[in-house]
Amino acid sequence: MASLPLPPEPIAAAPGRVASRRPQFTADELHQLRWLLGNVLTLLAVGTVFYMDVDAWTLMALTSSAAIAALVRPTLPARVPRFVHTFAFPAIVTFFAADVWLRSELLPAMVRLDMLLLLYRTISYRQRRDDLQIIILGLFLIVIAGVLTVSLTFAAQILFYTGCALGFLLIITLTDPAPANAAPPGSPVVAGAVPPAWAVHTNWPHLFRRLREVANWRVLGFGVVLFAGVVGVSALLFLAIPRFQFESSMLLDRFISKKAKSGFNDTIRFGDVTDIQQDNSVALSVDVSDQSQIPGTPYWRMLVLDSYEQGTFRLSSRLRLERFDQERTASFLVGRAIPRPGPTVFWTFFLESGVSRYLPLLGHFEKIRFREPQNFRGAATLALVALRGDPVTMTAYQVEDFDLSGSVRDETFSERWRNRAQFRPSDLSLELRLTDDDKSALERHLNEITGGERLPAMQTAQRISAWLRGNHEYSLTPRIPSGERDPLLRWLGARGPGHCELFAGSFVLLARTAGFPARVVTGFKGGSWNAYSNNFTIRNSDAHAWGEIFDPETGTWLRADALGAAAGTQAEEARGQAAISARMDRSWTARLDSLRVFWYRRIVSFDQRSQVETLRAVKDATQNSGKRMREALERALAGLKGWAMAPWNARRFIKVLGAMLGIVLFGWLWFEFGRAWWRTVWQAGGGRGGDPVRREASQWLRQIAAAEVRRGALDAGRANGPAGPGRPDVFAAVVRELQRLRFGARETWPSPHAVFRRARQALRAYSSGSYRISQP
Q1: Residue 100 resides in a domain
Q2: Which helix (H) or strand (E) holds 629?
Q3: Which among 227, 310, 217 is positioned nearest to 270, based on CA atoms?
Q4: How far from 393 is each of 8, 93, 302, 527, 609, CA to CA, in Å?
Q5: Which of 14-28, 196-210, 489-503, 659-673 has the lowest mean pLDDT?
Q6: Which of 702, 714, 730 has the alpha carbon at shortest distance from 180?
Q7: Is 150 domain-assigned?
């Protein structure tokens, strides 16, 4: 048999036509581009883990490292031991089954399975169908991440992935469909196998120079314009068609354990709120239907902390048990705000993930609505709502009509205060867990503030706030003297600068010393008005802590912020356009934030009930898939265990042994005779895709041709030059038989099974250097 040709040179122009002067890629260069784009798509796909709260960081690191290593050294997959390919898929299936069994979370297990498959495709030379699998596996991760995130960065990643995938498909179409390795069809390259010629000759700088030479920039520009046009049309359709967030209807985030970090929680130590202020990222965005109702200084309440000890405020277990309702699952909650005259004002909140499970609110409200049923606990008298867990994605909710008076009505506490003789100080927010010396110091400070007078709650709050502002400056880096006394008392006595937590905590201790119930409230203060999207933007840097003091005369808790407006003057602040003008933001950051809000507005809807109900039915059918799978497997194992533990006798043993021998005999008969018989039946029945014997013979011919090409490239790279002409042609007889099966009449065929066995032997012998092949 004559030696097979080397990789094809650039295609020449047809006779009678003027040859193009533009250079063309060789077959090796096309294979290198295909390898490059496949690994880039793998890196983009595994990068979606950053947008999902899935424990797959180890797999992401392994897959990314393997993809980068295979790009730097394309010959590395040839060094992968053969047993890895032999046991890869059984190991992957076992890992997936164990993952679902142990964690009972189907979606995270599928994500990890996808990444394992990408890892395996990265460490083996890929055929055409394997390259298509790279695209499909990557699309799965892209879709899941798109459902679980609304990040603008991810939107850019989708566009980049789409462009690379289109280029990848083009390269796949242009490259030779012959597999890139010398293994039998469907088998990966084995340990010690010769890497393909394109991998041996890979030189990325040279390839990029060739890309600049070969590229037709006019065609590429047209393709970019066409792609941009498709994206633009999609964007217009996105704007024209009413939408809802797919994630919120399918509830895919319910398949993932909540692991989001919380900025505000039930316990606040001095410095916690200040740490949040160091972050300038967006915490929440708020749309308002009637801008005339916007307060001059909005206080977004999130959490009430009534217990203090040694520099730490916390929500007491007593207050949590008494004031928070039992957890419920619903899509709305009716509040306690007194209805106001005029049309309803809607406040739509877009709360970013990682802020808190406590929802920012302006006070009492008439009604709060979620896009979908939520698990939450409400505290009506505290004007608080707490979700079950920290949300891992943006959470949207809509509030109807806030009470913007700056006070919180609390009939329950008012009744308790009238009967305060029956309660302990801890039940009345009056407790001071301080030493006698610290209490004496507080009384001295209070006498300095009030002059020993017994003042009403509002005047007491105003004087304490004024005294704190007069003796302490605001600073994010406070200086608290060292010592054994309580840190708040040390700060009060030093009269140095402090942050909002120190001001709020000191106010609470002084108000309690004056005999008034008081507590710390945490949340956000203020925010900016985005001039481009017309909404409030509240950042983590707006985090704030302030105090609330109970006024027995009105039965309400009054807001008292030593760093803000005087207590009781909130109603006098300018509202509407005057408040908006004072907070207008026209910066470039506001432009970017407006894109975020615009995106949220398009994906959030509170009115598409039918679509939500339809997709909820789909969710109900799929949500417990992992649990049902585990239960079925448990039943099967229990049945198998019961059968195995049943009493054994000679008759039962003979039956089992006979069944096992029957299975082994059937497998041997199928391997020896069944496959050839099936090919005959398939051919007689007009099997799909043409004659399977001719198709398999064609595959073996391509395998042999590729092996000859790679062997020639390897010999050419050795120091002693290529092998001499005396090297036996191990493929001559096998190729003649394969060509007869491929092109000859059926009546002239040799035994296909025997020919395919000899072809397999020839490839193995050629790789190992042994040239003895059984003859027909």
Answers
A1: yes
A2: helix 625-645
A3: 310
A4: 52, 30, 18, 22, 21
A5: 14-28
A6: 702
A7: yes
By the 8 A CB rule, do 297 and 565 touch?
yes
Q: Spell out the residues 6+ positions from residue 66 whose beta carbon is closer than 8 angstroms to its own.
A: 119, 122, 123
| Structure-model confidence comparison of residues 146 and 199, the more confident one | 199
Residue 35 predicted with pLDDT over 80:
yes
Confidence label for 690 from pLDDT (cuts 50, 70 and 90): low
Indicate the helix (H) or strand (E) that contains 471: helix 457-471
Strands 584-585 and 528-530: parallel
Number of residues that make up the chain:
776
Asked if the model's pLDDT at residue 606 lies above 80, the reply is no
Considering the domain architecture, whether residues 553 and 697 belong to the same structural domain is answered as no
Q: Give strand pairing partners of 379.
A: 384
The helix or strand, by DSSP H or E, that contains position 698, with its residue range, turns out to be: helix 692-716
Claim to verify: residue 83 and residue 219 sit in the same structural domain: yes
Domain that holds residue 148: 27-240
Please, are residues 517 and 581 in contact by the beta-carbon 8 Å criterion?
Answer: no
- CATH, residue 455: 3.10.620.30
pLDDT band at 750 (very low <50, low <70, confident <90, very high): confident
Q: How many domains does the chain have?
A: 3
Interatomic CA distance for residues 770 and 749, integer angstroms: 27
The residue written with tokens 């448990």 in the block is 634
d(CA 588, CA 594): 10
**335 neighbors 243 (Cβ within 8 angstroms):** no
Task: Return the structure tokens found at 638.
Answer: 């229990």
- Asked if 691 and 555 sit in the same domain, the reply is no
Distance of CA 249 to CAs 148, 173, 187, 204, 382, Å? 11, 38, 42, 46, 30
Burial class (CB in 10 A: 0-12, 13-18, 19+), 124: buried
Give every CB contact of residue 692 below 8 A, 6+ residues apart in sequence. 679, 682, 683
Of 147, 166, 163, 162, nearest in space to 256 by CA: 147
Which tens digit of pLDDT belongs to each residue from 239-259?
Answer: 555 444 433 433 444 444 444
In angstroms, the CA 486 to CA 488 distance is 6
pTM: 0.55
Q: Highest mean pLDDT: which of 267-271, 480-484, 681-685?
A: 480-484
CA distance 583 to 317: 38
Q: Which residues contact 553 (CB under 8 A, 6 or more apart)?
A: 456, 457
pLDDT of residue 623: 54
User: Quick one: 561 exposed, middle or buried, by C-beta within 10 A (0-12, 13-18, 19+)?
Assistant: buried
Quick one: 67 and 209 in the same domain?
A: yes
pLDDT above 80 for 689: no
E strands, 461-517, are none
Last residue of a domain, one of 220, 240, 260: 240
Domain presence at residue 603: no
620-638 residue pLDDT tens: 555 556 567 777 777 887 8
Asked which of 209, 240, 271 is the last residue of a domain, the reply is 240
Residues 261-279 have a mean pLDDT of 69
In the block, tokens 């609330």 appear at 548
Whether residue 612 lies inside any domain: the answer is no
pLDDT digits (tens, 9 = 90+) for 321-337: 889 999 999 888 988 88
CA distance 15 to 8: 18
The total of other beta-carbon atoms located within 10 Å of residue 730's CB is 21
Mean pLDDT of 595-614: 62
CA angle 518, 522, 525 (to 5 degrees): 115
The secondary structure of 11-52 as a DSSP string is: PPPPTTSPPP-S----HHHHHHHHHHHHHHHHHHHHGGGGGS
